[in-house]
């Protein structure tokens, strides 16, 4: 539905940046304002956000005393964007719903501060989807989309080893959507831990339990 508000003259790259950020499921208000401000054809950003909320496509999960807010697309919102013809949303719907559910759980459990969200790691310079600082290492969550095969997983692990080898200790937590995928991931990443980077796997419904045993710095 948000596509209806975009200026037709907005270039393709700018539209992709906007949509990719929104698909991620967790969007800071300042990010939305920055990305949307130059791309709307007949409405202010606040009007668009208000309309998305009214239609049940967007919910605000946190607002600080300074007015900072984090918005989440609801399942209905994700569906709506998929119906608008956005290819990325159609192909990654389950993935983005998983990210949203995980972040909601983590925020409920540990508070909103300290979490950083990123788009899907599609190139060698991009870190995993979610990052939070723990006491003894930086923890990264790679939300598995269920599509990566063995070779792609090896490539992903190699990339993470290169990215974090010379930085502070890093823990990569692969989050699997179901028990079958969890076993698959465990069998293929167990050989990769070392040189300051460790790899672990847990299920979608086990994320907060896993993090509860780690001193997470969120303040």
From TrEMBL:
<protein>
    <submittedName>
        <fullName>Replication-relaxation family protein</fullName>
    </submittedName>
</protein>
């Amino acid at each position: 539905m948000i596509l209806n508000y975009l200026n037709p003259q907005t270039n393709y790259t700018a539209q992709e940046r906007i949509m990719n950020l929104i698909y991620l499921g967790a969007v800071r208000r300042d990010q939305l304002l920055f990305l949307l401000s130059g791309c709307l054809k007949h409405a202010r950003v606040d009007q668009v956000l208000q309309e998305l909320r009214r239609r049940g496509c967007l919910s605000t999960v946190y607002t600080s005393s300074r007015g900072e807010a984090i918005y989440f697309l609801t399942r209905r919102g994700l569906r709506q964007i998929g119906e608008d013809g956005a290819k990325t949303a159609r192909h990654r719907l389950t993935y983005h719903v998983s990210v949203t559910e995980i972040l909601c759980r983590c925020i409920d459990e540990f508070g909103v501060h300290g979490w950083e969200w990123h788009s899907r790691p599609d190139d060698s310079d991009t870190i995993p989807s979610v990052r939070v600082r723990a006491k003894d290492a930086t923890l990264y969550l790679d939300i598995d989309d269920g599509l990566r095969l063995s070779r792609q997983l090896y490539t992903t692990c190699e990339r993470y080893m290169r990215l974090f080898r010379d930085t502070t200790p890093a823990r990569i937590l692969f989050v699997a959507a179901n028990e079958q995928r969890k076993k698959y991931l465990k069998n293929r990443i167990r050989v990769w831990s070392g040189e300051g980077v460790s790899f672990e796997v847990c299920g979608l419904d086990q994320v907060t339990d896993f993090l509860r045993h780690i001193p997470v710095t969120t303040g």
